[in-house]
Structure formats: C-alpha cells, structure tokens
Amino acid sequence: MANTRGLEGVVAAETELSLVDGERGHLVFRGHWARELARSRSFEDVAHLLWTGRLPAPEEAAAWQAQMAAARTLPEHVYRVMDALPAGLDMMSVVRTAVSALGAAQDWPPSLADAIRFTAAVPTIIAYRHARNEGRSPVAPRPDLPHVANYLYMLTGRHPAPDHVRALEAYLVITMEHGMNASTFTARVVTSTQSDMASALSAAIGAMKGPLHGGAPAGVMDMLEQIGTPERAESWIRSALARGERLMGFGHRVYKTTDPRALALRDVVTELAGEDPWFSLATQVEDVAIRLLEEHKPGRRLYTNVEYWAAAVLRAVGIPKPLYTATFTASRTVGWTAHILEQAAHNRLIRPQSVYVGPMPAAPTTPEEA
Ligand code: CMC
C-alpha cells in the first residue's frame, strides 16, 4: 500500500539487479541468492555479476581482478583535495568530496569503465585519509592483492589474516545492492537528468551518510559500549525507548521479518568471534531489544536489520568505528553504479509531483493571474 510520506510502497523503477522480499526475508542478486554469493564468491565476481549480468567464468577471473586493481591509484589532484580538507572532517564527507573531485571519465552515457574506476577508488580514498588522520604515511594499493585483501592491507600496512578477509568480503558482498533504498534512488534521480556518474555518486553518498540509512552501525556500537554487560541491557533499552529514541540496527522499511543480511552476517561473526564475550553481549542485547520493541510498538514487526551485525563484523576484523559507514559505501558503490548504468540504458527523467497543501491567494482578478 502506498504512503505519500516517505514514498512507502511506491514502485519507482523496474530493475534486473535485485529482489528484496520483505515478507519472506529474501534477497536475490540477478538470479542468485545473495547469501550464497556472500558465502562463496569474491567481491570482484559479484561486482561483475551486478554490472554485466553474469558471474565471470573461471578463466576470466584473473584478468577481471587485474582490470579492477589497475584502477586503484587516484589522480594526484584527488590526494591534494583530501589533504586540503580540515582535520576532523567525518570520513563520509571526505569520501563524498574525493569522489566528486575524481570526476567522470565521460559525461553521458555512464560506462562500465566509470563503474570500475569509482569502485576501485573508494577503498584507496578511505585508507589514504585514515592514514593521514592518524599521522602515518599512506600505504599505496597493491595490484597483486584482491580487492578486499588490498583494502585491509592499505588500512593497516600489514598482510591481512585470511579469516578477516573472508569475513569482510562476505559483508561487502551482501551489502552491495539492495533495491530502491534512499541512496540508490538518489543516484537514479541524478542519472535520469543525464548528469554524470561522479555527480550521481556524490549525491548517493550524501544520502547514505544519514543515521537512518548507512550511518547506523556506529550507533549500534555506541549502544553496545554503553550497555557494557548483558545484565544492563533491559534497563538501558527500556530507558532509551521511554525517551523516544530509536534503537540503531533494528527496524526496516521493507523487511517485516529479520533482515536476511543480518542472519548471514551473524553467521560470519559466529565463525570469527564466537568465543568473544563481546559476541555474547551482542547476542543477548539483540534478544532483549526485539522483545522490548514488540512490547513498545506492538504489531510493528521491528526486527534486527543488517547494520546490527554489520557493526559486529567490522569490529571483529578491526575496522575503526569512524570508518564503518565509509566501508559500507565501498560496498554499495557497486550497487549504485549498476543502477546508474541500468537507469541510463532505459532513461526517462524522474520527475514526480507534489500535492500543494498551502494557502491559496485571493481569487485571480486578471487573466495573467488565473
Ligand atoms: N527503534 C524504535 N522504534 C522504532 C525503530 C527503532 N529502531 N524503528 C521504527 N520504530 C518505530 C517508529 O517510531 C514508528 O513508531 P510510530 O508509528 O508509533 O511512530 C514505527 O516503529 C514505524 O517506524 P517508521 O519510522 O514508520 O519506519 P520507517 O520505515 O520509516 O523507518 C527505519 C525505517 C530503518 C528508518 C527505522 O526502522 C529506524 O529508524 N531504524 C533505526 C536506524 C537503523 O537501524 N537504520 C538502518 C536501516 S538498515 C540499512 C539500510 O538498508 O539502509
């Protein structure tokens, strides 16, 4: 059922990219279960699937990985733009500015080469700025490493542990694409004006930054840190709800059951950090939160969303909290660019209408005012 406020239930596009079934908790990327892809496929493979419609054949994989790796180094001016930004600026603002500075190779129509370029660039942008924030020398990308291993390598300067790479890869794959979410819709609206890919992505990053969309995982972590021990969960959550606060990592516009991405990521964290007392805290807080949300908003069907367990994966692989939303952006750039290519291929200007509910002037007296 459509609801004008927030466009709930409004169909804004036809897409071959993903199916999000909020009642059944299903997520499909171009004919494949997203959970299965996250378990078994590389970042590069699933990017290829979303952009081209098929997984790369085994004999294509190495050349495809090399093609993506070749686009990791940024033009010199982008580093200079980042260096000119004030210290303390949040990472999403840095990524938005750097992506904008990167510009599009061509204005219209957007190309697969553009999609590769931006996707390969985002991890370099994050790692470069993170190193600068910490007063370290940035670590240059290593073209011989796959996409996800290279991201962790650039962040730390060390060769990453294989189980960390696998866990982060599962996260980056399962969050790549998700139907007509706010940032993807934004990217399609900008593209529909025949603007370029850098403009569409800068706008999408702006939408992603907000706490109701991509900004939630840091809020999840703040909540768990404040709760501290399982015994404090009930009283902490009751007071937060009584103050009218939203629990980060719960509720979803589309999912009226547990978000399948949350289930997948919970499995990832169980494998990686099942013995960690922090994992047990997250599990117990989740149970209490779902029970109290049902008590607080009966019948609203508020369950765990992807951001709750995303925060746990990111923590377990050592991503610092200020980089959580930017790391989500590194993944979703694939979905955005796939939607931009799809929008451009069947373009029509997106231009909805509004209903005027303000006062009317006095009755017109001349034909021009009528
Ligand atoms: N905690 C407490 N109450 C909630 C929550 C929550 N997390 N989520 C929804 N509600 C309540 C809300 O107050 C409203 O109550 P009422 O109708 O009495 O005013 C009711 O449930 C329905 O909420 P809504 O605002 O109509 O739902 P929405 O579809 O507009 O919002 C949401 C979806 C994700 C913005 C919301 O659930 C929320 O704010 N969650 C917390 C932030 C969060 O975790 N965001 C990440 C979303 S998943 C990542 C992504 O796909 O982008």
Automatic annotation (TrEMBL):
Reaction catalyzed: oxaloacetate + acetyl-CoA + H2O = citrate + CoA + H(+)
Biochemical pathway: Carbohydrate metabolism; tricarboxylic acid cycle
Entry keyword annotation includes Lipoprotein: no
Keywords carried by this UniProt record: Transferase
Stored InterPro entries: Citrate_synth-like_lrg_a-sub, Citrate_synth-like_sm_a-sub, Citrate_synthase, Citrate_synthase_AS, Citrate_synthase_bac-typ, Citrate_synthase_sf
Cellular component GO terms, alphabetical: cytosol
Catalytic-site annotation from UniProt: H252, E307
Alphabetized GO MF terms: citrate synthase activity
Gene3D superfamilies on file: Citrate Synthase, domain 1 (1.10.580.10), Cytochrome P450-Terp, domain 2 (1.10.230.10)
Keyword Disulfide bond (UniProt): no
GO biological process: carbohydrate metabolic process; tricarboxylic acid cycle
NCBIfam families cross-referenced by the UniProt entry: PRK12350.1 (NF009005)
Family: Belongs to the citrate synthase family.
Protein name, UniProt field: Citrate synthase
